[in-house]
Amino acid sequence: MGKKILSYFKGDRKYFAIVFFILFLIIAVGLIAPILVEKKKANWETELSENILAIETGIKNLLSEKESRLIAVKDQIKDELHQTLVTEEYEYGNLISLVNKESYEDFSIEIVAPNGKIIAWNNIIAIKQEEIFPFVYPLNEVYFFNSPLVTYLTIIDTVILHGDRFYVLLSKPFEKHYSLQNKFYRQESFSEELSNSFNTIFNIFYDPYAQPSKDGRKHSVMLLNSKNSKIGLASFFKPSLNFEVTEIQETTARIQILLMTIGLLFLTLGMKSDFLTIKWRTVRLLALIIYFAALRFVLFWSGFPARFLDGPLVDPSHFSSTFAWGIVKTPIEFFVTNVLLLIIGLKFFLYIFEYFKEKKPQRFTLLKFLISPLIAILTFYTMRGLAASIKSVVFDSTIRYFKEPDLIPSLPALVMNLNILLFGLAAVFVIIAFILLLGKYLKLLRDDNSIFRFIILFVLIQVFCFIFFLRQSEPLITPIMFFAFFSLIFLVVGNLTFRAKHISVNIIYSSLIASVIAISMLNYFNLELEKRSLKVIASEVNRANKELLSYLVNETLRNSTQNERLISSLHKLNANYDSEAFIAWSKSSLQRESLSSELVIFDRNFNPLGRFTVGFDEAVDYQKLLRQKNETGVSISEIDSSEKAGVSFAGVVAVENNSIVTGYIAVAAKFNVENLGAAEFPNFLESNKAALGSVVDLNLVRVFEFYDGKLLQVRGNIFPSKEQREQIFKVELSPDGDGWINLSVYGEDYITYILKSNWDGADKTTAVAIKDKAITWSLFNFFKIFIVHSIFILILVFILILSRFLRLKYTFRTRLLGAFLLVSIIPIIALAVYNREVVRERTNTAIFNELSKRSEYLENHIKAQKQKHLNRDFLTAFENAGKELNIAFTIYENSERIYSSRKEYFDNRLIPGKLKSAVHYNLNYLSYRESLTKESIDNYVFDAYYRKIDFDDRAFILGVNDAFNKIELFYSPVDADVFLFGVYSFAVIVITLLSTLFANQISSPIRQLTRATNAVAQGDLSVQLKNKEKGELKELLDGFNAMTSELQKNQNDIAELERESAWKEMAKQVAHEIKNPLTPMKLSVQQLVAAYNDKKSEFDEILQKLSQAILNQIESLSLIASEFSSFAKMPSLKLEEFDLIPVLKDTIHLFGDEEAEIKFKTDTEKVFVESDNSQMRRMFINLIRNSIQARASIINVDLSVGDGNSIINIADNGNGIAPEIQNKIFEANFTTKEKGLGLGLKLIKRFLENTNGEIKLISSNTSGTIFGIKIPLKSPKQEA
Amino acid sequence: MKTLFFYLVIIFSVSASNYLFSQNNNLRQNLNTDSKVKIQSVIFNDIESGIINSDVKKFSPYFSSQPYISLINGVNGYYSSNQAYYIMEDFFNSFKVVSFKMDEKKIEQSVSYCKGDYYFEKKGRRELAHLYITLSKSGNKWYITQISIN
Q1: Chain B window 2-41: which residues touch A at a Cβ cutoff of 8 Å?
Q2: CB distance B2–A329 less than 8 Å?
Q3: Interatomic CA distance for residues A1091 and A444, integer angstroms
Q4: Taking a C-beta distance cutoff of 8 angstroms, is the pair A1173, A1141 a contact?
C-alpha cells in the first residue's frame, strides 16, 4: 500500500504534493493563530503567573551562570598563582604577566598583599585601594560591587603564597551606567540582556537593601548568590497581553512567510522539467526572466529575508533606495535583488552567446539592421543604469567605503561591496550580450577572425557612446570613463570572438572588469559626495540655531528631573557626582549632538557637587541662574557670549523627590563652527554625528559665516580678503539660494559652497571651502575595495571549479599552474608581510617620536619653571606646562596619579587612576626610562607613552597619549595595509591569470598528445596533431604524427598482406575442398560415359547410382560454400553491460583540442546498455569525426532515456548532407569524401542492427545535421 | 546607402532617447511660499497626520536632500531623503505610536519648527519621547531639515 502511494508521487508529482502540503500548512497556521490568541486571552491570568515564574527562574539561571563563570576564573587564577609563584622562583614580573594575560582581559584582577596594598592589577581596575577594606561580603562569596560608572560582579578570595595570605579580587563588568552613541562604546548590561531575553523592561537594583517595587504593574525578584545571600533586586514589568498577542501574530506571520518561501522552492523544482521541455530558447529565457521577477516580487511582498533578520544588514542607514517601491531598501534586499539580476544577466549573456556562435544563415537582415540602434541605446543606458545605481550606493548610504577603519570592512560595508560587484557583473554581462548581438546583426563580429571588423564595431560603439553622452541633460559619468569602460568590455568581447571557448574563463574576466568599472564609478561618485559634503556642513552650521540649542538644553534638563539614578544619588552620602554628571550627560542629546557642553549637579544650597565638561570653555554664572530660576520647571537663558562667536545657552532645573527639592541640575551648551564634527571632543566621546567628518577631513574645511555682510565666525586659519568676500557675495545663486565658486587663497584653489539665508531678519551667508586638491581620485581608494572584490572573485573561481566548469584534475597543466603560483605567490606574500611589519614598525616609531617629543617639551617646561620659581609647587608647574604648551598629560608618583590635565576623566573614573601595571613594572622595577603601550577606553584603543622624570629628588612618571593629543600620521597602519594588500592582491590576480595562460600554453601540446594517444589506444590511427610548436616539442609532435601515419600505413599494409594471404590460403582451401568432390564427380561421369559407350545392360542402374553420387558431391560443394561464407562474416560481438555516459564523455574528451566545441548534455545519472563497448566507442568517434569534417563548430551530444531505449542525438552546425544523397548514406561504398571508403555509416548501421539498436538521419540541411541513435537499455536484473 | 541609413537611424535614436528616458525621481514637491496660507502650517499638519498614522509618505515629499535625523533608537546623523524615508518607516514600525500631539509650532520667515510629545509602545509598555522638527527655507521652498525624536 505504502509502495503504491509512493509510486504515485514519483517525478514532479512529489514536488507538487509538497507544495500543496505547504499550502495546507500555511492555511492551518493562519487558522491556528486566532485560536492561540483567544486561548492566550482566556488563560491569561494563569499564563501570567507561569510567565512570571519562568522569568524568575530565567533570571536566577542567568545570574547563576555568570556567577559560576566568575568562580571558575577565580579558581583558575588561584591555581596559576600557585604554579607561577610558589613552585618557581618568585618574580614580580611573573605576577604582572599572569594578571595581564589576554584571556583575562574582560576581568578586573587585583592582587592584594597581606599588608592590604594592591601589588598587581590588570587594565580594568574595579575596586580602588581605599574601597577594598572592610570587606562588604564574606570572602569567597559573589556580590555586586558598585563603582561610580560600572557595577561589577565581584568575588574576593585568599591565596597562600610563601606562607603569606594574599587576596585575589576578581570582578567582571556587569552593568555600565553610562551609554555613548558611538562605535567605540562597548555595552555591558545585565538589565538589557534580561530585557532582550524576556521581552519586558527590567530595572536592576545592585543593592542588597533594595526594596520590591510598589508599582502594581511591576514584579520584583531578589537576586541571590550561590550562598543564598541577597545581593540585589530585579524589578520588571509584568508581561503584557497585548505584547504577547502581537508576538503570536508576528510569529505566525513569519512561519507563513518561511513556509511560502520553501513552497516556492519546491514549486520551482516541480516546474523545472516543464521548463526544460520548452524547445524555444527565447521562450525559455523569457520564462526565466518572468519567473525571477515574480520570485523577487513575492519575496519582497512577504518581507523575506529582511523580516527574519535584525542588525546592520536591514538597517536602511547603510543603504536604502526608493527605487521600485523599495525593492532595494536595505543592504540585504539589495543583495537578494542583485543575485536574481545576476542570474538573469548571466542567462541573457549565455543565450546571446549561443546565438552569436550559431552559423545559420541570418533571416530578417533588414529588421535586425534597423533595430541595431535600439540595441546600441540599450547598451548605453545599461551603462548609465549601472552608474546611477553606484551613485545611489554612495549617496544613499552612511557607509564610507574608502574610509573603513579596517582592512576587511564591517559586515554592511562588506555586503555593499559584494552588491556593487554583483550588480556591476550583471550589467557587464548584459552589455557584452548587447555588443555581441550588435556585432552579429551588423555582421561585424564573425568567425572569420577579422580584426578589422572588430575594430570598426569598437569605433562605432565609442563614437555613438560619445554622441549619447552629449545628448544627456545630466550625464552621470564623463566621456573618458565611458571610453575606458567600453574598452575594457571589448576585451571580453574580443576574447569571446577570437579566442576562448570556455565560458567560465570569460565569466572570471567579466567579474574582474565589472569590479574595475564599479570601483572606478564608486571612486568618482565619492569625489562628488566629498564635494557635496560641503553642502551638508553648511546645513549643519545653519541647523544649530538658538531655538534648537535652547530645545536641547531644555530637553536635557527635563530628562534629568525624571532620571531615577540622579534623583537617588542626591540622597547618597559619598556619591561620586562627577560620575553622575557624566552618566547624565552621556545619555543626553548633548552627547548625541556632540555639543560643547557641561552638566553640573548642585545641592539644595546651590553648592556644586560634581560636573562634566567637554569642549565648553564659557564661564557661566550658575549661581545667578539658580537665584533667578522659576519656582518650578526649567529656566533657560542665552549666555551673552560677548566677543566669543557662536550661540550659548544655559539652564537650571530643580530635582525633587516626593515634592521636596533635593538638588539642582544645570546644563550649558554652545554651538560654534570650531567644534564641527566634534573636533573638540576626545574620539571616545564623539557621537555618530561625528560621521559628518567621515566624508572629508574636517581639519581641511574652512567655514566663514557672514551676517549682513559682516564676518562673524571663522573656522580654520584663513580669513577672506576683500576680493574674496566680494567673490563670495557675488556668487550666482540657484533657486535654492546656494551656489559654488572657486576661491583662490594664497595661490591655492578652494572649492567653495555658498549658502544664503535669512536669519532673524539679517542676511546670513555661509561659505564652506576645501582645497581643490583635497578632493582627488586615489589609487589607494581603488585598492581598498579591490582587495574585497578580489576575495569574492577568488571565491567565484573556486565555485566554478567545484561546479566542474573547469575540470580540475591532477594533470600536467594543474601541476604546472600550481608550481607557477607557488613560486610567484609565496615570495609576494612574504614580501607583503615583511613590508607590513616595516610599515607598522615605522608607524609605531612615528607615534613614539611624536609622544616622546611632547613629553620632552613638558619635562623641559616644568624644569624651567622649577629653576626659575624655586618655590613653585609641582601642581602649579604641571598646570602651567599643560596650558602653555596645550598638551594633555598625566603625572604619576609610584603608580598613583597625582595630576592630570584631563582630570575630569579620572575623577569620573572613566580612566583608571592607577598606572598600567606593565608600565609600572618596566619603569619602577626594571628602571626603564620610557615605555610605549596600547591602552583602551571601551573599544577605543590609543597609544600611551610614559617617561620617568625627576624633579627635586622626586621621581615621577609622565604620561602622554594620543587619545587627548591627536597625532596626524602621514598614513595609518590601516592605510598602509590597504595599499600593500591592494597592490599585492592585484599582483596575485594578475599572476594567477598569467600563470593560467602560460600553464595552458606550455601544457597544450602535452594535452594534445595525451588525447591523441588515448585515441590511438582506442584504435583511431587517423589522428594527426596540429603542430605550431618549436624545439623539442615540435620534434615530439612531429614524431607522434609520423608514428601514427606510419602505424596507419603499416596497419593498412599488414591488413592488405593479411587479406592477400588470407585470400591465398582461402583459395588453396577452396581449391582443395573443391577438388575433393570434383574427383569423385569426374570419376562418376567417366564411369557413366563408359557405361553408355559399352551399352551396358545395367546402364539405368549405373546412371541412378552415379547421379546420386554426383548430387552428393554437389551438396558437399554447397556445404563448403556455406562454410566459407560463414567464415567471412564480421567479427563477433563481445557483449557486456556498461554505462553509456562515461563512454560518451571519454569519446568527447578525445576531441578536446579540436576547433569545434562539443557539448554533452544528459538529465540522467547512469544509462546501462548491453553492447560491444569498443565498437560503440568507434561508432561515436566515427560520427563526431564526420561532424568535424563537415566544418561544424558546435556539436551537441544529448543523451536521454525513453521507452526502454537510450536515445542519443548528435547535432552539429556543419555543412549538412545534400537532400539528394541523404537516402544513400547508409549504403556500402557510398561516400562524399575524397579518401573515404563509404563503409563508416554502413558499419555503424550494421553494428546497431546486430545489437537491436537503430540509427537514422533526423534532419540535415545547410545549418547542420542531426543523427538519432536508439540503443535498448539493459533490463534491470531480477532479484533472486 | 544601407550604411548611411543605419547611421541616420542611430543618430535619430540617440537623440530621441534623451526625451524618452528622462529621469525624474525627485521626491520633493514644489511648494511656493507665495500662497496665502502659510505653507509651513500645511507641512506641519501633514507631519502630524503622518506621525499619527505612521505614514511617512505624508511628509516625505518635504524632506530636504540631506535631512538631519536623531531618533531614540540610536539613529543620529545626516541621511539622504531616500534613507530618511525608510529610517522613519522602520522607526514607526518598531516604536509604534500610541498618541502624538504637537505642542508648539513656530512659524518664522526663514526657519520654522514644531515640538511635540510622541508616545510609543515598547515591549508592551507605553513610553514618551520628545519630538522636534525644523523646516528651513531654501530658495522659495520649505523643506524638513531636522527630525529629532528622543
Answers
A1: 2, 6, 9-15, 17-18, 21-23, 25, 27
A2: no
A3: 96
A4: no
Query: Three cell numbers at A1003?
Result: 601544457
A593 and B70: CB-CB below 8 Å?
A: yes
Cβ–Cβ under 8 Å, residues A855 and A947 = yes
Cα–Cα dist A1152/A1159, whole Å: 11
- In this structure, chain B runs to a length of 150
Does the ipTM exceed 0.90? no
With a CB cutoff of 8 Å and minimum separation 6, the contacts of B55 are B49
| A738-745 vs A1205-1212, strand pairing mode | unpaired
DSSP A296-330: HHHHHHHTTTGGG--SGGG-TTT----GGGGTTSS
Contact B63/A at CB under 8 A: no
Residue indicated by cell numbers 598482406: A1057
- Rounded to an integer, what distance in angstroms lies between the CA atom of residue B9 and that of residue A953? 94
Nearest Cα neighbor of A710 from A745, A759, A661, A676 is A759
> Which among A373, A396, A687 has CB closest to B13?
A373
Identity at A807, one-letter amino acid code: R
By 3-state DSSP, what share of chain B in percent is helix, strand and coil, each rounded to 5? 35, 40, 25
Residue pair A1022/A1052 in contact by the 8 Å Cβ criterion:
no
Name the percent of chain A in helix, strand, coil, to the closest 5: 55, 20, 25
DSSP, collapsed to helix, strand or coil, labels residue A575 as coil
CA angle (A51 as vertex; A46, A56 as ends), nearest 5: 130
Of B108, B107, B88, the residue nearest B45 (C-alpha)? B107
| Cell digits of residue A692 | 559628518
Site from A379, A392, A396, A530 to mutate, B interface, most B CB atoms within 10 angstroms:
A396
Burial label, B58 (beta-carbon count in 10 A; 0-12, 13-18, 19+):
middle
Taking an 8 Å cut-off on Cβ atoms, the answer to whether A539 and B13 are in contact is no
**Is the Cβ pair B109, A242 closer than 8 Å?**
no
The answer to whether residues A1110 and A1084 touch, using CB atoms and an 8 Å cutoff, is yes
Q: Which of A987, A993, A982 is nearest to A519 (CA)?
A: A982
10-residue averages of pLDDT along chain A (1280 residues): 64 83 91 90 89 93 95 93 73 87 93 91 90 87 93 94 89 94 90 90 91 87 92 91 86 90 87 80 88 88 84 88 83 93 93 81 78 91 93 90 78 93 95 92 74 88 91 89 93 83 82 93 90 87 84 91 87 87 92 90 91 88 84 79 68 88 91 77 79 73 86 82 86 85 84 83 85 72 84 82 61 79 81 82 88 93 88 88 92 92 91 91 90 91 93 89 83 69 74 79 81 79 76 82 84 76 72 71 82 83 83 78 60 79 82 75 85 82 83 86 87 84 74 58 83 87 86 62
Beta strands in A592-631 (DSSP E): 596-603, 608-614
Q: Is the pTM of this model over 0.80?
A: no
- The answer to whether the beta carbons of residues A989 and A512 sit under 8 Å apart is yes
Sheet holding A748-759, edge to edge: A710-715, A701-707, A762-771, A748-759, A738-745
Angle at A943 between CA A937 and CA A946, to 5 degrees: 110
Tell me the residues of chain B between 80 and 139 that have a Cβ less than 8 Å away from chain A. Answer: 80, 82-83, 85-87, 89-90, 106, 109-111, 113, 115, 121-125, 130, 132, 134, 136-139
Distance of CA A696 to the CA centre of its chain: 26
Q: Which three cell numbers stand for residue A124?
A: 580594568
CB A914 within 8 A of CB A121: yes
Say if residue A412 is preceded by a cis peptide, omega within 30 of 0.
no
